[in-house]
Write a structure and sequence with these properties.
The chain is of the alpha+beta class and 916 residues long. The chain contains 27 helices and 25 strands. The strands form five sheets. The chain has a six-stranded mixed barrel. A six-stranded mixed barrel has the order 17-18-23-20-22-21.
Length: 916
């Protein structure tokens, strides 16, 4: 019989059981009557014929049971019986059940929380058809290695002309698309009177076709939409539902993005939110609209460029990420064609470069290919190592949890040895006894898993918002718990049921069989059980030491980072993010806009001073360029910032030499600059830089001051060599001097000034959309999000593991004291003092703790090197962390050991001697 037929028969037996039972009865009755009829025909009487038929036919009940077993009905009945028995047993011991379920909920909940983040950031593929066929491309410089996350020496963006060359070279071997990073735009929605910030992407015409995404409503972008005389937009399903009312009437309506009115022509399917898993896109528009939308973010440049001209025509401005769909069979030929086309593009780009050094560096770039099934993620490079480390920690916590519950079940199983022996005597098999125990474990685990999943869903949402930078809107789709997370939680629940249920079930069945066969008493089985429990407790202590040690290292890292001097006065400093270009301001209006914003801010009571700048502090700004320094042969790569007067006083950056910018530094005045100490130390070697010159392509800008180094990107990184220019002197770099930051120094509590400050800015510049307006301490907090999150989670896991291990220790000691009550009574009756009895229990505890600590410290020393990438100014074998671990273990385990030891000293000898 084929397996499909057998399956169909068994399903019919389950779902149409009464009919199947009737058919079995009818079949057996038919054969029995046939047998009786044959005996009657042979001359027997009715009674003799029935007796003979039953004798030859066998037990009807046995045959019926065999029939039911062949159809799977007996297994179903036994399973139902096991479920009923386990449920009654668990409900009969509510304290045991509650403790076990709560313990499992904590372990499974912690595991589910971390998996949800790991899946969203590292594992989950893009929700597009055949994601494994997708590839992305990059250029790798001579000083860096290939990595989709980006970084020094890695170039992930391409110019529009080079993209078109690569698209033509690919031909019909696949499909190539270009897309910008998810960016913030200003938009006025249909029927609205005011603008708001939304997230969008500019894409090439084959973007949706390359991804295999079709519209749920309307249509996606096509080649006809590449012209800029009739702008169109496709919106996401979430944006359509939450912002546009969720009506089909939105198709054909107008949405104004960065001042450009576009027709909404389509809505994407639910779940598709772009290629960046950590930032959903609200809309997509053709990349050919870049000039009209004034998009000028996330770009890098080579050689001569003009940010004010359309980027579509300039091969020296790289601003597009590329993604291709190439079937596996076509990849060798397609990639070879793309590499050849890219070499031609590099050669054309190099021919336009004047600097020989830049030309040599550009020629050394290589064309790389990366699988793209998981999409882009700004969080992946930053958090993947941390998430894998946390996954290892939470796995340890889950093991400690399983050991704890296993001990609880083992103690309970020993107490039921006599009951199991009776069942064995009545014919119960080992398999049936083990299945009974596993059923009970499975019920506990599924209850704990359900509670753990709900706990993990809640905790992972909180963590996701923290990781994403205090995200206020709906979480990106990748971070929402879905069927993958539910399947994982269910799998973990079943795995834990087997992990903590199989050994106690086997031991209980074995003890019951021995008791049934040889009369072994329950007391005789306790010694074997106690040794097993002690071994588990030692393992728990060792594992908890590993997790606590990792938590100590990560905690010291966070402490060290919080003590880093940022180089500016953080207290009483308020920062606002600005988007003037996206709000419709022309680049040439930046100096005047800056003056108006400073005047509006300083008019607010409680404001001491204000200043605007191109790059904020601790803001990740990476505006840089090649500069010539007077007296230095080679070109220097310097970070650059344009600031208004009083910027350094407002930010609290001390002046080391020279002067700050002031009214002398006008548009038509002498070009001036201020450098930081990093430049002075590296290129001037103790000589005064005041009066020297810097500039590009020639050093024509006079250095009038030197300021202290300040962290402009992150506290993790050392201060970069920074040159400051007055906002009034843009040197023709209109787009590069666009303001993005307003700093305000206040006299009192920053939070009290924020509402009035926002209102003043709104009245002064109603067209300008002002983003976050928060105290600078919030920026510092956001910069340390990874370290703080990882440290807090590690401490939570370490504390949980240590508490669970200590509870396991407490349980074993308490169980031992309870089982040795008679022995302790005898000792006390013979004159043992309370201190001796307490020493007996504490000595047993000390041996387990010592072995667990030794094993744990060895494991911590071996595993700590895997945390080196997450540490800051902390050695993987930090002695302080070792001392703290020993102290933490000593404190918690001492308390866990003292209670059972103290209880032992209170045993009444007379009562103990009567105990059996």
């Amino acid at each position: 019989m084929r397996w499909t037929t057998r399956l169909a028969v068994r399903l019919r037996s389950v779902f149409r059981r009464h009919r199947v039972e009737s058919e079995i009865d009818a079949e057996l009755q038919f054969h029995l009557e046939q047998e009786i009829g044959e005996h009657l025909a042979a001359g027997m009487s009715v009674d003799e014929a029935r007796t003979a038929a039953l004798r030859s036919f066998g037990s009807v009940a046995y045959i019926k049971d065999e029939c039911r077993s062949s159809l799977g009905l007996r297994l179903l009945d036994e399973t139902v019986q096991d479920l009923r028995y386990a449920t009654r047993a668990l409900l009969g011991k509510p304290a045991f059940t509650l403790v076990a379920v709560a313990t499992l909920a904590l372990g499974i909940g912690a595991t589910t929380t971390i998996f949800t983040l790991l899946d969203a950031v590292v594992l989950k593929p893009l929700p597009v058809p055949a994601a494994g066929e997708l590839l992305t491309f990059y250029e790798n410089g001579p000083d860096g290695s290939a990595d989709i996350a980006g970084g020094s020496g890695r170039f992930l963006r391409f110019s529009y002309p080079r993209f078109k060359r690569l698209e033509a070279a690919l031909g019909d071997s696949g499909s190539l698309a270009a897309v910008i990073r998810s960016s913030r735009f200003t938009a006025r929605l249909p029927g609205a009177t005011e603008s708001t910030f939304i997230t969008g992407q500019l894409v090439s015409d084959r973007y949706f076709a390359t991804l295999g995404v079709t519209a749920a409503r309307g249509r996606v972008l096509t080649a006809d939409d590449a012209r800029d005389d009739a702008p169109v937009a496709v919106v996401s399903d979430g944006f359509w539902r939450n912002w546009l009312g969720g009506s089909d009437a939105v198709l054909g309506q107008q949405i104004v993005v960065n001042g450009v009115s576009a027709t909404i022509v389509g809505v994407t399917p639910p779940g598709f939110v772009g290629l960046w898993t950590d930032r959903d896109a609200d809309f997509w528009m053709p990349a050919t609209l870049q000039p009209r939308l004034r998009y000028s973010n996330n770009s890098s440049s080579y050689g001569t460029f003009d940010f004010g001209k359309p980027w579509l025509e300039q091969d020296t401005i790289a601003w597009l990420n590329l993604v291709a769909r190439i079937p596996a069979a076509n990849r060798p030929r397609a990639i070879a064609a793309l590499q050849a086309a890219n070499r031609d593009g590099v050669a054309a780009l190099v021919s336009a470069m004047a600097d020989p050094k830049n030309r040599t560096s550009m020629l050394a770039h290589t064309f790389g290919v990366e699988p793209f099934a998981r999409g882009f993620s700004g969080l992946r490079a930053r958090y993947s190592d941390a998430l894998f480390a946390l996954t290892a920690m939470v796995a340890v916590v889950l093991l400690v949890t399983c050991a704890n519950v296993a001990n609880l079940i083992l103690v309970r199983a020993v107490g039921r040895t006599r009951d199991v022996a009776i069942r064995v005597s009545l014919g119960a098999t080992t398999a049936r006894l083990v299945r009974q125990g596993l059923t009970e474990s499975l019920i506990l685990s599924l209850a704990g898993g359900t509670a753990g999943f709900l706990l993990g869903e809640w905790a992972s949402a909180l963590l996701a918002r923290e990781v994403l930078g205090h995200f206020k809107g709906p979480l990106p789709a990748a971070f929402v718990a879905d069927a993958r997370v539910l399947t994982f939680a269910a799998g973990v629940s079943i795995a834990t049921a087997v992990a903590f249920g199989i050994a106690p079930s086997l031991r209980a069945a074995s003890a019951g069989r021995r008791a049934a066969a040889s009369g072994t008493t329950q007391r005789q089985a306790i010694g074997q059980v106690t040794r097993t429990m002690r071994t588990r407790v030692v393992a728990q202590l060792a594992l908890s030491v590993v997790v606590v040690f990792a938590a100590m290292l990560l905690g010291r890292t966070l402490m060290n980072l919080t003590q880093v001097d940022p180089g500016f006065a953080v207290d009483r400093l308020v920062t606002a993010s600005l988007d003037p270009i996206e709000s419709g301001y022309d680049g040439e209006a930046m100096p005047a806009l800056g003056r108006r914003l400073v005047e509006a801010a300083t008019s607010v009571p409680g404001v001491v001073s204000a200043a605007v700048s191109r790059c904020g502090l601790i803001a990740g700004c990476s505006s840089s360029g090649g500069y010539r320094i007077e007296g230095v042969d080679d070109e220097a790569s310097l970070y650059q910032n344009w600031v208004s007067p009083t910027y350094f006083a407002t930010a609290g950056i001390p002046l080391v030499a020279g002067r700050e910018f002031d009214d002398r530094d006008r548009t038509n005045g002498p070009a001036v600059a201020i450098i930081n100490e990093s430049i002075a130390r590296r290129w001037f070697h103790g000589r005064t830089p005041i009066g020297r010159h810097v500039g590009s392509p020639k050093p024509t800008i006079e250095i009038v001051g030197v300021v202290r180094d300040a962290h402009t990107q992150s506290l993790h990184d050392p201060p970069v060599p920074m040159v400051y220019f007055p906002l009034s002197q843009t040197f023709g770099l209109i787009r590069q001097t666009a303001l993005t930051n307003l700093d305000v120094r206040v006299a009192g509590e920053p939070g009290l000034v924020v509402p009035a400050l926002r209102e003043a800015l709104r009245r002064a510049e109603p067209q300008l959309l002002v983003g976050d307006l928060v105290p600078k301490t919030m920026h510092i907090r956001r910069d340390l999000t990874r370290e703080r999150t990882v440290a807090y989670l590690a401490f939570s896991f370490g504390a949980l593991a240590l508490v669970l291990a200590s509870l396991g220790l407490y349980g074993v000691l308490s169980y031992g004291v309870a089982q040795r009550t008679q022995e302790i009574g005898v000792r006390m009756a013979l004159g043992a003092r309370s201190a001796e009895v307490m020493g007996l229990v504490l000595g047993q505890s000390a041996r387990m703790i010592a072995v667990g600590l030794a094993l744990g410290l060895a494991g911590a020393a071996a595993s700590s090197r895997y945390l080196s990438g997450l540490l800051f100014d902390v050695a993987p074998l930090d002695p302080v962390a070792f001392v703290l671990v020993v102290l933490a273990l000593a404190v918690v385990t001492t308390f866990a050991s003292y209670l059972p030891a103290h209880r032992a000293t209170r045993v009444d000898p007379m009562v103990a001697l009567r105990t059996e």
